[in-house]
Every structure is written in C-alpha cells, then in structure tokens.
Design a protein that fits this description.
There is one protein chain. The protein is of the alpha+beta class and 148 residues long. Helix content is 21%, strand content 24%.
C-alpha cells in the first residue's frame, strides 16, 4: 500500500500482559523510553469515557488514563487504559489476563512523507517493546471505525 502523502488515520490497540498492580512499573518503563528520545513523559489525566455510538449503554468509565502526543509532523498519539473499567466491564473480555491496553494513532489528518511513516512504524514498535511486558495486537481500527 502506498502511504506517501496519506492523510488517513491509522490506529491500533495492543494488550499488555501484566497485572493492574504493575501500573507503576509500566508507566516508568514507557516514560524512560520517551525521555531517552527527548520527549516529555506521559501525563495522567481524567479521561473522557470511551463511547461507542453503536452501543450507548456500553459506555466505559475510568478513573484515569495516561497519554502523550506529538503536535509536530510526524504527528502521533498514544494512551494506556486499564482493560477493565470502574464498573468491572472489560473492553477486551477475551483477554482477561491483559490488565492494560496501549492505543496508538500513527497519523492524524496530516500528510506524512515516506520517511515519516518509517519513523512512526519504528517509534511505535520501540514504544510497545519499552513496556517491559509482553504485548499483543488486539485490534486494528479501520478508517471511521469507533474505538472499543
């Protein structure tokens, strides 16, 4: 697929095989990776609920999540959320041994060069490796698809 000049969003959700209690170590590992590249650490924030317009009653609520983004080209965004929300609902119920999820968005309606695409692929590969726990792709989002 030719991605030169592409302006579509490319997003993936990974499962991190760890326990909820591994949060501190997970955040520390990712922050060390970011700092090693001269990026700012993730910030902890009160998230907006993840809403699925096809299932309004299925709104997930979370106390907080962690996220980081880059405004300059090549733009990127990622966040980590618990797999289970405050009501005990799991976003990925087939993966109950996954306590945290890593959502990455590689482009955001900007034109990236071939070099930018290579950089983003490498960046997110290294980011997932930096977690310090096994990581598995759970879902690839199609253009216009709502986040789970």
């Amino acid at each position: 697929m030719n991605t030169e000049g592409s302006s579509s969003m490319e997003a993936y959700e990974y499962g991190i095989y760890c326990r909820l209690e591994d949060e501190k170590k997970l955040v520390q590992n990712i922050n060390q990776f970011l700092v090693s590249l001269n990026y700012r650490k993730m910030y902890k924030t009160e998230p907006r609920a993840i809403r699925d317009p096809d299932n309004p009653e299925g709104e997930k609520r979370y106390a907080y999540c962690y996220r980081q983004f880059m405004k300059e080209v090549p733009r990127w965004y990622f966040d980590i959320y618990p797999n289970q929300d405050l009501d005990g609902q799991s976003r990925f119920p087939d993966y109950l041994d996954i306590a945290w999820t890593l959502y990455v968005r590689k482009t955001d309606h900007v034109k990236n060069s071939a070099e930018d695409r290579i950089y983003l692929d490498d960046f997110f590969s290294r980011l997932s490796s930096s977690c310090g726990f096994p990581v598995q792709l759970l879902h690839s989002y199609s253009e216009g698809e709502n986040r789970k």
